[in-house]
Amino acid sequence: MKCPCCGYDSSDKRDYDKKSSELLNKRDDRTRKMLIHVIKKISKIESIPKKDLYYFLQNISSVSDLFVYSGLDDELELVLSEWSMTKSNLWLWLN
Is the four-CA dihedral 23, 27, 29, 35 of positive or negative sign? Predict the structure, then answer.
């Protein structure tokens, strides 16, 4: 049985790269480029498991391209800078 929200299917052994690519290709060019840009930026800070990336893309698949692009464009630098600071502060605190 497949969950309509997150796409989880306990009986399906899927290729997460292929499914993620299919979900990205359903977006318009501008939104797809922004999503790829954000994924690359986050991957430089912390690795993203393929399964988590697929579920993220599945969760936002029902959101219009305009809202996804606007949200990512507005918050990208703020979120990444805060995340980077948190990760570096945590690393300093642990060592």
Answer: negative
Give residue-wise pLDDT tens across range 19-54: 899 999 999 999 999 899 888 877 877 788 888 888
Asked if 49 contacts 56 with a C-beta cutoff of 8 angstroms, the reply is no
Q: Give me Rg for the CA atoms of the chain.
A: 15
Query: ∠ CA(67), CA(70), CA(74), 5° rounding?
Result: 140
DSSP per-residue codes, 56-78: HHHHTTTS-HHHHHHHHHHHHHH
Helix (H) or strand (E) segment spanning residue 20? helix 16-25
Contact 55, 7 (CB under 8 A): yes
DSSP-based three-state secondary structure for 86? helix
